[in-house]
């Protein structure tokens, strides 16, 4: 379970970085706007928190 949580956190961090780059350049990356990347990273982090809580 810990490996899944670590993977989800890595995906969230990558999504945050891509979202920030998209926001700074004011261009969608791959046709996806910055807000979508940032909201996806928030969902990933909530999933990681939920999985960690379920583990205990």
Secondary structure elements and pairings:
Blueprint: H1 2-25, H2 34-55
Helix pairs in contact: 1-2
What portion of the residues fall into strands of 2 or more residues?
under 5%
Rounded radius of gyration (Å): 13 Å
The N- to C-terminal Cα distance equals 11 Å
| Biggest sheet character | none
Structural class: mainly alpha
Helix % is: over 70%
The overall average pLDDT, rounded, is 95
Q: What sequence of helices (H) and strands (E) makes up the elements?
A: HH
User: What is the number of beta strands?
Assistant: 0
Number of alpha- plus pi-helical segments: 2
Short description:
The chain is mainly α. The chain has helices at about 1-25, 35-55.
What does this structure look like?
The protein has 56 residues and is mainly α. It contains 2 helices and no strands. α1 runs antiparallel to α2. The chain is elongated.
């Amino acid at each position: 379970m810990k490996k899944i949580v670590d993977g989800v956190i890595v995906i969230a961090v990558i999504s945050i970085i891509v979202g920030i780059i998209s926001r700074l350049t004011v261009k969608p990356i791959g046709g996806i706007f910055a807000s979508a990347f940032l909201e996806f990273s928030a969902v990933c982090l909530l999933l990681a928190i939920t999985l960690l809580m379920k583990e205990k």
